[in-house]
Design goal:
Blueprint lengths: L1 H26 L19 E7 L6 H9 L8 E8 L5 H7 L3 E5 L7 H13 L7 E6 L3 E2 L3 H10 L4 E8 L6 H24 L10 E4 H7 L8 H11 L5 E10 L5 H33 L2 H10 L1 H20 L2 H5 L7 H21 L9 H21 L17 H5 L1
Parallel strand pairs: 1-2, 1-4, 2-3, 6-8
Antiparallel strand pairs: 4-7, 5-8, 6-7
Helix pairs in contact: 1-11, 1-13, 6-13, 6-14, 8-9, 8-10, 9-10, 9-14, 11-13, 11-14
């Protein structure tokens, strides 16, 4: 029995260490800016811009003003706001801007995924059909070149595109700053790294662009709590690889209190776990059959809820091995040497200030690193609860209040 326990513990250590090293190696590609021969194509693609909104009267106006004034021919795009189960003045404000307010009331099928499904069905029945569909959230702001960048990617043959996600309110609280640090890392060491490796980007819920014909071929059907994760898996399963448009920027409002953050991330973990359960095994099997590394990496992305627990396990293993005598008593904590655990923990943490240096973030942002480990630690109980309650499909709305305009972001 003791020998069996030793073997299991050794296997567990090996998996923890290997998965972490894999992620670090992939991330290294984000340390350089890939030189690309960028071609600016004249505007030719038409867009249907969909804005998902549920009781967003406090933030919808700045976004509409922003979208109306994009640097793109006005005749080549239309804006549709999905007023999903709204009980406030969202629809009335939308109509004041002469924008299509698509009011939806469904007390059973709640959430962005269902709202998207409903809206796309309406869109396909319209006389005018667009070349692509772009999706934003109501609390967003968008760089004025956004559609120009999407047009470039579509002309070059890309069918699914994810933009750069920036935080609209990084300095509202330590929580929003922790989100900002996380997304700076994701943009550089996840999205750009995979882009440099020639692998698929992952969709992030907003700032997404889809070729219309692709949506009609595959159908949406992404109605989980994390519709972006689900549709990413669906695309890659069909060997359609999303690309990343780093020059198209979306500013997204983040929660400012820990409790609202926990509610949001718990929804993410429930949805992510649900998608992992349905898509991870088929992706791995297909990766083995086709020998396509992008499929394996997509499966690893679905593995993220478990990876959060693995990071916690790295900390625990490091503590047990270095700070306690348990390894000598049980002879099971020395498969990975002490220096390797030290190096792994150091590498995992130093990635964040490294990204902030590369992205030239203001010095006050580095103060967020003080409480950032606390924010990271909260992922572990959230992940555990998400794993055991993934069948809970209740949609929890994140309340947005920061009525900021694009001009304020540049200030």
């Amino acid at each position: 029995m003791h020998q069996f326990f030793v073997i299991i513990a050794d296997i567990f250590q090996f998996i923890i260490f290997t998965v972490s090293i894999y992620q670090i190696i992939i991330s290294l590609a984000g340390c350089r800016r890939k030189m690309e021969d960028k071609v600016d194509h004249p505007p030719q693609k038409s867009f249907a811009i969909l804005v998902a909104a549920h009781n967003e009267e406090k933030v919808i106006a700045p976004l509409l003003e922003n979208l109306i004034n994009l640097d793109y021919p006005k005749e080549l795009y239309e804006i549709f706001v999905i007023c999903d189960n709204c009980t406030d003045q969202t629809a009335q404000i939308v109509k004041q801007y002469n924008v299509c307010a698509m009011e939806r009331f469904d007390a059973v099928n709640k959430g962005k995924g269902y709202a998207m499904e409903w809206m796309l069905e309406k869109l396909w029945k319209r006389d005018r059909q667009h070349d692509a569909v772009v999706v934003f959230d109501a609390d967003n702001l968008v760089s004025r070149n956004f559609l120009l960048e999407m047009n470039n990617n579509l002309v070059e043959g890309h069918r699914v595109i994810q933009s750069y996600l920036e935080t609209k309110n990084p300095f509202d609280s330590w929580v929003s700053l922790s989100y900002a640090i996380t997304y700076w890392f994701i943009n550089r060491m996840w999205q750009e790294a995979r882009h440099n490796w020639g692998m698929a980007a992952t969709l992030s819920g907003t700032g997404m662009c889809f070729e219309t014909n692709l949506l009609k071929e595959l159908g949406w059907n992404a109605t989980s709590l994390t519709e972006d994760v689900e549709f990413t898996a669906k695309c890659i399963s069909n060997e359609i690889y999303p690309t990343w448009a780093k020059n198209a920027i979306v500013y997204d409002e983040k929660p400012i209190t820990l409790m609202s953050s926990i509610r949001q991330r718990l929804r993410w973990m429930r949805g992510h776990t649900d998608c992992a359960r349905r898509y991870m095994k088929p992706l791995i099997l297909k990766a083995i059959q086709t020998k396509r590394f992008a499929l394996f990496d997509a499966a690893m992305y679905l593995f993220q809820p478990i990876r959060f627990l693995f990071v916690a396990a790295v900390w625990v293993m490091s503590y047990l091995q270095v700070a306690t005598p348990l390894y000598s008593q049980f002879a099971l904590l020395k498969m990975v040497p002490d220096w390797a655990w030290f190096a792994l923990n150091t590498a995992l943490f130093l990635q964040f200030p490294l990204v902030m240096l590369m992205e030239r973030r203001p010095w006050k942002a580095y103060l967020g690193l003080i409480l950032f480990p606390v924010f990271q630690f909260t992922w572990f109980p959230i992940t555990l609860v998400g794993l055991f309650t993934s069948k809970n499909k209740t949609w929890n709305h994140t309340i947005h209040t920061r009525s900021i305009r694009l001009e304020d972001m540049k200030g």
